[in-house]
């Protein structure tokens, strides 16, 4: 039994007839499936582009490194946030040019730097002196951004804990870098992922604007870029602001920047979360003291991995025409580990072995972090532009 | 209109109008393209870096070939490491007294592609009877071969990339091992104004093995950023301190058809600007 009880995910009970399209998909491709809808990626790209006009969008590949996803975004005109040589290989395969990328992993081996340079990516992010020193041999080739940390304990994923220098330290680090012949082109921050409100972004933009202007007034070297990171939220549940209202205050804060400062962002989740749907099959049922357990052929070691790593609570859809009688229900994955539970505290009508369960908004940090635990095969990934997905 | 922009440097770079793409591959973790440009003719680029162009390759190939060969004066056996486009080979073939030319290329595809798409680089030299092609890693070849040579020319790609093994201390040591007494090793060594560290590390690594180690330069328009440096490594200090009359006499006797090389330039090429000398102290 899972030791910590999870909050209930949003659940939709749809008429049994609506399961048909999902059933067809698994009859053709097998179960479990993860269905990517490129049309939704394009839509998300357009809406973020509209909400942040003039901001260069660098898709954070880590959110979903599937080839179809990356290809779709390349076609939309996105640039890319890369963190590893593996991500570089993927971009090479789909013929994205290196000068369209920024390497944002703050900690790099010499080989990582060389791989990126060889690929033609000359922009890098660092956050401490040891990392700056690694660029001395490449100082004439690179443009470096300094990552500043703005802790965000209210975001489910606080990315300023592990990386980033403090704002108070930033100017001094930039000066030390200049003394070593390394030019700092600007600042970057990452306000946290799935941010509930834009205040951390606006605060960080304001502080970075101050730092940038102060630096440019007092130094010969001019900074020219602000990278506002990712963190743009998606509505897993009803409490999430829409992207236009989330970005409006950020747009305002960006007005503080002098005109010559280029602004870029590294959205991951927002561009892809809505674009994937998981389809899995009930393979076992048990009535236990805490409710009815359904065992699915996908779980937290597979597509629902973000349930653990990303703290995401994906909306669940089941199909039944018997909506009058419901049971307290727990949905678990197929592995033998008791942590493998992806929905608890829900009430749904009875399902049978062979019935389908659909997970929605499963495009970000899902297949990206899936494992092969127990050697259960991962969900097959297919593409579809059908509106059901 | 299509353009090809070099991605060597974040702060600046050169860009070409692409009149026509002649060849392009995205295999083996690299991107290679050959295109036509109205000023530079056929241009070959690898992973965002210009490798060679028809218009200015003669400056590079003549510098890397005629300076060591005429400085030595009695070259019979030449080893070319890399150089798959055939440009160095073409220049070496102009020396009638050379008896054998071995070229070590890591991949025959480079040679085939160059013969087809950059035919002026080799200009028939691949068919010269003195020429022998070895398909092997250059670093491996010099570590294992029993043969010895009077001149070794390393015509490699940049050290960030597939050419990395051709910039190691071991490679230089192995080159020395297969040089005849009084022989000379020359290597492509980047543009010091932008890549000073490359020059410094080569100097550190070659000094260990050779009594005389310096650089000479030539300005090649599409290797942007000022003059390109070529390393010079030999145990015979006199090779690069010849008087002009001797070089002139050898040049006349060799009857080379050249467009860049002159005996005066040969001696002048070793005169280094202050900003390069500073790195060699
Ligand atoms: C450096 C960096 N940039 C961008 C992102 C993407 O964040 P999000 O998916 O919240 O937009 C991440 C996520 O971990 C990150 O670490």
From TrEMBL, chain A:
Enzymatic reactions: L-ornithine + H(+) = putrescine + CO2
Pathway: Amine and polyamine biosynthesis; putrescine biosynthesis via L-ornithine pathway; putrescine from L-ornithine: step 1/1
Highest taxon listed in the record's lineage: Bacteria
Domain Orn/DAP/Arg decarboxylase 2 N-terminal: 39-273
Pfam family, one: Orn_Arg_deC_N
The protein's Enzyme Commission number: 4.1.1.17
Listed SUPFAM superfamilies: Alanine racemase C-terminal domain-like, PLP-binding barrel
Family: Belongs to the Orn/Lys/Arg decarboxylase class-II family.
Species of origin: Sessilibacter corallicola
Name the UniProt record assigns to this protein: ornithine decarboxylase
Keyword field contains Lyase: yes
Keywords: Lyase, Pyridoxal phosphate
Cofactor field: pyridoxal 5'-phosphate
InterPro entries, A to Z: Ala_racemase/Decarboxylase_C (IPR009006), De-COase2_N (IPR022644), De-COase2_pyr-phos_BS (IPR022653), Orn/DAP/Arg_de-COase (IPR000183), Orn_de-COase (IPR002433), PLP-binding_barrel (IPR029066)
